[in-house]
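Quick one - first record:
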Amino acid sequence: MNLSICQNPIELGELAGKKGASLIREAIQKRGNANIILATGTSQFETLKHLLSEKDIDWSKVTVFHLDEYLGLPISHPASFRKYLLERFFNFLQQLKAFHLINGEGNPEEECARLGELIKQHPIDVAFVGIGENGHLAFNDPPADFDTNQAYIIVDLDHACRLQQFGEGWFPSLEAVPNQAISMSIQQILKSKAIICSVPDLRKAQAVKDSLENAVSNLFPASVLQHHIDCTCFLDVDSASLLSSTKAIT
């Protein structure tokens, strides 16, 4: 894993967005199209913003999947990740080859199967991800399932995860945060050719330390990124503040 330590979230977003854009262009140049995964949440604000500002990406050749969505939450809800991506990303693009959003309002088993078949047909070139305060990757909370070969799974959200969602202001109370979600699995994320991991903010510092400096364990789900052949983790000085050693790149 490569680390890029940035001064602030804006610089983090710029560097992560630039690298991601380069990978998308490279895929289009080599194969004629690109398949990507987008994450949501406050950690992705600046990365997605900069990705949209990058020039010369032919978005009409890009197919997008996303990582997770709450069960039973309508797309009109402020915390809906479908709503997030529409308002912060898709609505700014005139053309996009396709985007496959997770619908958590119907039959979750059928939705997992539907998306699983779709993503089999679209090998992922680059995944944009983050790390949760509890060390989760997507909504794979500890102890995460490292073994399933299903692309999308139904997961239970632990207390720390639900507390983070409430703390970030997405829900009016902790009780309002759903208990379950559909999440892309760990193994599916690892199939991505490249991974861009954006993690700003002091509240993520312990999770960053646990994920980058501990042995790989499903108790620290994002630690599995240590095993990926092409993963770059973009941190700011706050999220990197507890690391015992760093390898900065620019």
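second record:
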Amino acid sequence: MLDFDLAEIYGVETKYLKRAVRSNMKRFEGDDFMFEVTKDELLRCKICTLNKKGRGQHFKYMPFAFTELGVSMLSSVLNSDTAIDENKRIMRAFVALRQLVFNPSVQTNELEQEVKELKQYIEDVFADYNDINEDTRIQLEQINRTLAEMQVQNRLQAKPRRRIGFISEEQRKNNEDIIE
């Protein structure tokens, strides 16, 4: 992230952010914290717009670009409320991570127990589901068998029916021949 964006996030002016970085340069040594953007890099950058919030057409000083580590380090050198809150969150996260590394058995055992309970629950649900499916399959087979038997009985018991509606003389003669 560029310095003017971070200054806005941390609630300070860009010149104070740059001043804090320059006065604490030992904290930002190396490219893994931050670097100063060159004019060539700025000209190639398509997302950086210079005509933003009254900055004008050209940079007087080249901006700093901060990495993730640099953003975290920056929160420790700035004196705004936002930077202080962010630094507290980072320290709390670090302590929580350290506790997890040095005392993994307490939380690991709890997680293992929860995973075992979930696994048992899922197995029970699938067993019940399979039982229901088997019962349903048997019931459907019985229904189909009964329907087939009923159809056979209906065919055996069925008598020829007289047609409903207008019947021509020719059809009447054909039907009488069939019935006799």
